Amino acid sequence: MKLKDPFGRIERRHHLGYEEMRNALHEAGIETPDMARDAISQVWKRGFRNMGVGMLLLLGVLAVIPNAAPLILVLAFFMVAWEVRSNITAQQYINRYIKEEIDP
Predict the structure, then answer these.
(1) Is residue 3 part of a domain?
(2) Cα(39)–Cα(90) distance, rounded to whole angstroms?
(3) Residue 2 in domain
(4) Phi, psi of 7 (to 5 degrees)
């Protein structure tokens, strides 16, 4: 029994996330480590694009409602943190896919 995850919920969620990523990579036809590394770079490019669009939207709201600057700053921080954490998790899943499925 682990203190951080006594009922195994987090581990189960990560396992399901990896299985979904593995199935998506299989369906996309990713069969070599180089193709998987390209998928990692695509994940990061997509994440930066999403952050850019989000920041533009938040700047638009800031232009309309300047008094909301503190709230917009907090939203921007959470958006960046969420996107970076999602990308790191996806990168970990793809690296696991390389280790377990491509190069066993």
Answers:
(1) no
(2) 10
(3) no
(4) -105, 5
Q: Alpha-carbon distance 44 to 39, whole Å?
A: 9
Tell me how many domains the chain contains.
1
Query: Taking CA 68 as the corner, what is the angle to CA 75 and CA 60, rounded to the nearest 5 degrees?
Result: 75
Domain span at 88: 9-102
pTM for the structure as a whole? 0.84
Query: Per residue in 91-100, pLDDT tens?
Result: 999 999 999 9
Q: Per residue in 32-70, is it b (16+ CB within 10 Å) or e — as a string?
A: eeeebeebbeebeeebeeebeebeeebeeebeeeeeeee
Classify residue 46: in a domain, yes or no.
Answer: yes
